[in-house]
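Model it.
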Amino acid sequence: MTQNFLAFTKKSPKNYLTFILIIILFLGVYCRIANLDSKIYWIDEVATSLRVAGFTKQEVTQEIFNKGLIPISELQNYQKITNQKTFKHTIKAFIQSPEHTPLYFILARIWTSVFGSSISAIRSLSVLFSLLTLPLIYRLCQILFQPAKTGWIAVSLLSLSPLYVTYAQEARPYSLLVCIILLSQITLYQELRSHSWFNWFSYTISLILSIYTSLLSILVIIAQSLYVIVIDYSQKKSKMNEGRSHNSLLPSSSCPLPFLIIYQLTAVIIAFIAFSPWLIIMVQNWQLLQDNTTWMNVFLHPLVMIAIWFYSLATIFIETPIYLGWNWLIITRLIIDIHLFIIIFYSFYFFYKKTDKTIGLFILLQIFIPLLIMRGSDLIFGGQSSTAIRYMMPNYVLIHLTVAYLFSEKIQTFSKIFLPSIKPWIIILSLVLFIETFSCFSILDKSPQYQKTRNFHNPAIANIINHNPDSILLTEPLHVFDAISLSYILNSSIQFQLVSHLSHLSFFAADKTIYLLNPSEDFISQIQQSSRDITLEKIYQPELLTDGEIHLTLWKLS
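Modeled.
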């Protein structure tokens, strides 16, 4: 049987490669749906469910505060769609978070109305969008490079990318954003390549959808507009109106060159006019927007920031836990990262040198312009928004494309991979796919720290509280979302209460174990200065990677 199989693969290597591709796609789908409801439902996802259900944070805080002591499981009632909260309430809840444009949340409201408000139901919407990115990146490769080889390699790399698998399981708009950005790139290319009203209209619609999905798409629009300007300028300068190659991005000769910028500018203007209703909401709630994004302005040491940038770049292909100090795992990860960086940066150089210059600029500008804007602003003005890996996803997805192009060109033809002298690039591609597969399976039952940030240590905190099933958990209103996040993994017998002053502790029974989640310095000071016989003990403090890392602690009151 083995001999027959080898004979089959030598005779029909493309059939064998098709089989491998099917396996890769199957693994990619499996990793996206495995343990969908058991991973940490962190505060950003809690906020998603809350707004989709039509509640605001202020409303929830007030209601819970007035109820006093309640079962911890009751917190999840604010995560579910009910008849009392209509679509109108959902829209009002969106307005309380003007920094998040509403398209994803509207779709999530419709989705959960049909499939329910469970964790697996709402996360499955992101899984769907993540799977849609695979045919979209294939289509982009197909229209850029014609042969299907680059497209299939890009699909394979993206299918098993631990970064995109991870965010496929999060009830947030990032997978949808990647989809729409890819759609805008496809429609822009087609609009420039063969100018038509349909392509221009499709591109304009994609811009509108992208802005209504995330404000981050504005950075991509800037890069796309800059690309059109560069192409227009370079072609005017060289006066190359004829003899263009078959893969040129320029429109046909029936379209005068000066109209390139006009078409792009018109599409952008229409997109922002369509976005103006939400822009007005942002302006009217500007202070609320500032309050909701204060973490972005927290200072982070530049060296720490740069280290996070490199770490985030490697997460496209590899995932390992982050530790302090040195051990064999960290050293192995560092060695692999260095080799991955070499592949990535060489792919940029190779891509620009080997492809048509217009194609090279088309992709590389959309990778680097948004990154330079975000990272440059953090270095110049302070802040740490560029350290959020999820914000880099629309740009990082194109790195898969450049790496796929590198491999496809180096491998040359698939038919040669079964020769005795296997090419080194076949081995490298196999190793990269193996690293991705291993990474995806290593996080099959848990979440990366960069994804869950402050709630990454929820399981450790919950294990302590669950040891005392009749205990009480207290927290201040500031951390009500953290309490809801914890409620999904706490025993239903645990009781909960919001407190804002020491006087709220007066009626608790002495025989109850009382825990305090992440108390503020002011609340700790109240207890320490109180004449009452109260002991406050910190019983859980996670090991921090940086001094400014946002985290949760657990304290015990006696």
